[in-house]
């Protein structure tokens, strides 16, 4: 565990990557939120409402946040919340999605309940955790600001805290604008051989890209791409660092959040949004069952769902995620998530069934 200045590292590889998907939920189930009564008193704090008991939350004085996000991103979230609520000290544990899932399952099996709030980067992981009774159901007063499809069913287990999405990016010092890719099929051009990067199979966004482009263009698409001898890396920081320095000319999994970070530093990198759409994955956040600090956890979740929390997720340079909140402010550059066409897998059964094939093909392509 850690404060916002230090964290416990979890280095075990993503062990239980189950894939990512949107649940194909019946409309009647999604609308069930309207039938759920909010029985907790609601209090207005700062510029948002919360169902947390503020006196009890301050008496608890702390909470622990499990997240898939990077170290500086997690620290920034805790710092922003603590600035608003100095009597409540947040701590965090961060790890890749599968390792985080494995950790909390192992803890719960041993009768340990350390985490208060958890955030996964793959919907299938959140759904699995839900089936195991992992969430403490809490219907936040913020739910009306979200469409039903961005909330769990039943409502109150988790919500879409943000959406990460990826396009293409190239080094403008090495690639002329006329030669730059305009759509996804342009990445098959032999000119990119030995100079193109992607992410490794542990990436949920990479799985989404593989699945969606295979759906659009057929099984042969990635076989042709493999001939270019792409390099694969664990993090978006690595791929953008290589692209900025000219080690690679093209990145085929250019996460927008990573692009904005290097753009802010003046790197010669150009982002391309192919017209067929951008692979995207939602991040899902909820309170853990038997949370040791339940009132502080409720306050934290309400803050995350509020304009204050969502603005942080969109504007913090280590996040730059898009918000699905109905009244979300623009992202840096004046854009909103709805300005992009997103490709999000929707068929859970097909997606899950294809995961083994993805792992085998992608690792073989990267020589792993």
Explain what this protein looks like in three dimensions.
By secondary structure, the protein is of the alpha/beta class. The two termini are 32 Å apart. It has helices at residues 27-30, 54-60, 71-84, 97-109, 123-131, 204-217, 220-226, 236-245, 256-264, 294-305, 307-315, 348-365, and strands at residues 43-45, 48-50, 62-67, 89-94, 117-120, 159-171, 196-199, 231-233, 250-255, 269-272, 278-287, 342-343. Helix 2 crosses helix 10. It has twelve helices and twelve strands. The model is unreliable at 1-37 (pLDDT under 50). Strands 3, 4, 5, 6, 7, 8, 9, 10, 11 and 12 form a ten-stranded mixed β-sheet that branches. Strands 1-2 form a two-stranded antiparallel sheet.
Question: What distinguishing features does this structure have?
Answer:
ten-stranded mixed β-sheet, 368 residues, globular, two-stranded antiparallel ribbon, alpha/beta
How are the SSEs ordered, and which strands pair?
Layout: H1 27-30, E1 43-45, E2 48-50, H2 54-60, E3 62-67, H3 71-84, E4 89-94, H4 97-109, E5 117-120, H5 123-131, E6 159-171, E7 196-199, H6 204-217, H7 220-226, E8 231-233, H8 236-245, E9 250-255, H9 256-264, E10 269-272, E11 278-287, H10 294-305, H11 307-315, E12 342-343, H12 348-365
Helix pairs in contact: 2-10, 10-11
Please provide a brief summary of the model.
The chain is of the alpha/beta class. It contains twelve helices and twelve strands.
Q: Report mean pLDDT, rounded to a whole number.
A: 89
Cα-atom radius of gyration: 20 Å
Q: Helix count, per DSSP?
A: 12
Uncertain residue segments: 1-37
